[in-house]
Write a structure and sequence with these properties.
It is found in: Mitochondrion inner membrane. Essential component of the TIM23 complex, a complex that mediates the translocation of transit peptide-containing proteins across the mitochondrial inner membrane. With 255 residues, this protein is an alpha/beta fold. It has a single domain (19-240), classed as HAD superfamily/HAD-like (Rossmann fold, 3-Layer(aba) Sandwich). Helix content is 17%, strand content 18%. The protein has helices at 66-76, 88-98, 157-160, 163-168, 212-222, and strands at 19-22, 29-33, 52-53, 58-62, 79-83, 109-110, 116-120, 126-127, 139-140, 149-153, 175-179, 192-194. The chain has a five-stranded parallel beta sheet with strand order 6-5-1-11-12, covered by helices on one side. Strand 5 (79-83), helix 2 (88-98) and strand 6 form a beta-alpha-beta unit. Helix 1 runs parallel beside helix 5 (212-222). The longest helix has 11 residues, at 66-76. The chain is globular, with a radius of gyration of 18 Å.
């Protein structure tokens, strides 16, 4: 029986108030030119079949457990959105191609044009979208992102500043961004959940033993009742989840 469904004796759970903003490249998917797909570490296995090939010849591979993870999020979270630093055409190719069965469940799909350009290097004080002090995850303004110059970051206030997205549940207390690139989250460190990078040419990161998204589902279930996600210690979250081999997804929602 589905969570919250009718009937007696079932596991009846309220949907969590938490919302997710999901990165694409390195988090949910990876890609390569279709002409070199035969060189992948898992070539010759079912995993070597791309989920989608673009008109430009980009083969898109979906991370192990990603589809189950997205189904879990659809039932567990108040709302789920997508944000990639890549261009709009790539975002559409991934969402409407490789992840097409989940496309209608996303509250929004942001691309690189929604990112904010910031200077790198120097400065003082603290920055964290929610104003957290360093002991709760604040980061120095001007965090060294690899030299001086400019970079682009994902500033989550662009998500919850829109009344329609606030109505869906996206607020600074409820929103978490799932990212493999911490530098994208320096404005909202307290809202960030970092995940290892999915790289189809890296072994064993590209293999079927990659259980990061399965672990993440269990972690999200464990903090489902938290009122303010910024005050949850999320660093090293994956070390707090112990999974038996072939462990199922957790029940969605708040017990």
């Amino acid at each position: 029986m589905a969570a919250g469904g009718a009937g007696g004796g079932g596991d009846r759970r309220a949907r969590s108030a938490h919302c997710l903003v999901l990165d694409l490249d390195g988090t949910l998917i990876d890609s390569c030119d279709v002409s070199v797909a035969h060189e992948l570490p898992f070539a010759g296995t079912p995993a070597a079949e791309p989920a989608h090939v673009t008109a430009d010849g980009d083969a898109i591979f979906v991370r192990p457990h990603a589809r189950d993870f997205l189904r879990f999020c659809e039932r567990h979270c108040a709302a789920v959105g997508v944000w990639t630093k890549s261009g709009r055409a790539w975002a559409d190719a991934v969402v409407n191609g490789a992840l097409k069965e989940h496309a209608s469940s996303f509250s929004f799909v942001f691309a690189g044009d929604r990112c904010t350009t910031v200077a790198t290097g120097g400065g003082g004080g603290w920055r964290d979208g929610g104003g957290l002090p360093p002991e709760l995850g604040g980061l120095p303004v001007g965090l060294d992102l690899g030299g001086t110059g400019q970079t682009s970051i994902k500033r989550l206030r662009k998500v919850w500043n829109a009344s329609s997205r606030r109505a869906a549940g996206f607020r600074k207390e409820t929103t978490m961004i799932v990212e493999d690139s911490p530098e994208n989250c320096v404005a909202n460190y307290g809202n960030a959940l970092y995940i290892s990078t999915y790289d189809v040419f890296s072994q064993p990161a590209a293999g079927p033993d990659d259980d990061q998204l399965l672990r993440l589902a269990h972690y999200l279930a464990s903090i489902a009742a938290e009122a303010d996600v910024r005050r949850v210690e999320k660093r090293g979250w994956h070390r707090r989840v112990s999974l038996l081999p072939h462990a199922p997804l957790p029940p969605p929602g708040v017990p």
